[in-house]
Amino acid sequence: MTKYVISGASGSLGRKITEQLLEKIPAENLSVSTRTPSSLDALSQGGVAVHAADYNDPVALERAYAGSDVLMLISSLAVTKRVPEHRNAINAAKRAGIKHIVYTSTAGIHPQNPTLSASDHIVTEDDLRRCGIGYTIMRNACYAEVFPTVAAQPVLRSGEWVQVEGNGKLAPISKNDIARTAVACMLDPARHDGAVYEVTGPDLVSFRDIAAMASEVYGVPIRYVPVSIDQRYALLDAMGVPRQYAEGMDGHPDAHLWCSEEMVTADIAFQAGYHGILTHHVEFITGQKPRSLREVFELCKGKDYNDC
Ligand SMILES: NC(=O)c1ccc[n+]([C@@H]2O[C@H](COP(=O)([O-])OP(=O)(O)OC[C@H]3O[C@@H](n4cnc5c(N)ncnc54)[C@H](OP(=O)(O)O)[C@@H]3O)[C@@H](O)[C@H]2O)c1
């Protein structure tokens, strides 16, 4: 009987993967790991083994992964510091006897992509290719839920969708569809061994399209405002967003919550076309098409990011 472990199970994607995997396998075949086991009490009461393990703690990681065959490795949030964290997880997986790792990378993997977070994933993807055990890389496009929630909130207040200028496109995907894809890869590692999937939604859209969609769904006029890179930085400076990551930023222990360098380099990459990728990999892997951005907008309208 194959045993599974999900690392990063307490996060928004990890919870969806866990829920969907438990529809297919008994709880006793699943372990999960997190730095905050108390956040997963409900799982533990349902018979899932919950382990405490930080990506900075190789011994705890090995303990958490021991006895499992397939690891779902959800990438850490510590952008620019997470390569060694992921390396710890991969090496712990090898020591623990894991046979296959499914990893959450990002869309737009390219040596010239200026996005801070992409550079981390490039190195971890290489580590996986060399690690000597089976792997599947999921290059997840931008979460569709971000646009009707986190991105729309300031726009609905100001009536302006401000974006670094350019004509880039992207194919946002819902977290539910990413989770379905991850579960399918975990359940059939032989079929997906060595594969690199571009996990995209069904449509390529520009930011101008997204602003128009927000306007239609929320029923308010929204003006699309392209700005230069310097203007974008100046706007974020005025909002008090720090340029770079710093320890304790936003009161979060990882200091991971959006510095402007991360946001603006991501915008530059979007508008330069690095995310202009549309595939049918979700349907190829799961047999089912992913939701459109419009459907996600309707489902998430008026909700918080974490509730949709
Ligand atoms: N494609 C996109 O648009 C997009 C959007 C958002 C995020 N992401 C990326 O996708 C990945 C997962 O996203 P998510 O939405 O599930 O994020 P999330 O809700 O913030 O969850 C992050 C998970 O990572 C775990 N984690 C973070 N640092 C850790 C560490 N040092 N050791 C062990 N576990 C750690 C957290 O566990 P504990 O805190 O409980 O330990 C949590 O379970 C992240 O890499 C994130 O950057 C992608």
Spatial ordering of strands, largest sheet:
3-2-1-4-5-6-9
Q: In terms of per-residue confidence, which ranges show pLDDT below 50 for 5 or more consecutive residues?
A: 251-256
> Cα distance, first to last residue?
33 Å
Average pLDDT taken over every residue: 94
Give a quick account of the main beta sheet: strands, pairing sense, barrel closure: 7 strands, parallel
Compute the CA-based radius of gyration. Answer: 19 Å
- Count of extended strands: 11
Quaternary assembly:
single chain
Domain NAD(P)-binding: 8-189
Pfam family, one: NAD_binding_10
Protein name: NAD(P)-binding domain-containing protein
InterPro entries: NAD(P)-bd_dom, NAD(P)-bd_dom_sf, NmrA-type_oxidoreductase
Molecular structure report:
- The protein has helices spanning 12-22, 41-45, 58-65, 82-96, 116-130, 147-158, 175-187, 189-192, 207-218, 229-238, 260-272, 281-286, 293-300; strands at residues 4-7, 30-34, 49-52, 70-73, 100-106, 134-140, 160-164, 169-170, 196-199, 205-206, 223-227.
- It has a domain at 4-141 and 173-200 and 277-290: NAD(P)-binding Rossmann-like Domain (Rossmann fold), CATH 3.40.50.720.
- The two termini are 33 Å apart.
- Mean pLDDT is 94; it is low at 251-256.
- It has a 7-stranded parallel sheet with strand order 3-2-1-4-5-6-9, sandwiched between helices.
- By secondary structure, it is α/β, with parallel strands linked by helices.
- Helix content is 43%, strand content 16%.
- The radius of gyration is 19 Å and the shape is globular.
- α5 links the parallel β5 and β6.
- Bound molecules: NADP nicotinamide-adenine-dinucleotide phosphate.
- NADP nicotinamide-adenine-dinucleotide phosphate is lined by residues 8, 10-14, 34-36, 39, 54-56, 74-77, 85, 104, 106, 140, 142-143, 254.
- InterPro entries: NAD(P)-bd_dom (IPR016040), NAD(P)-bd_dom_sf (IPR036291), NmrA-type_oxidoreductase (IPR052718).
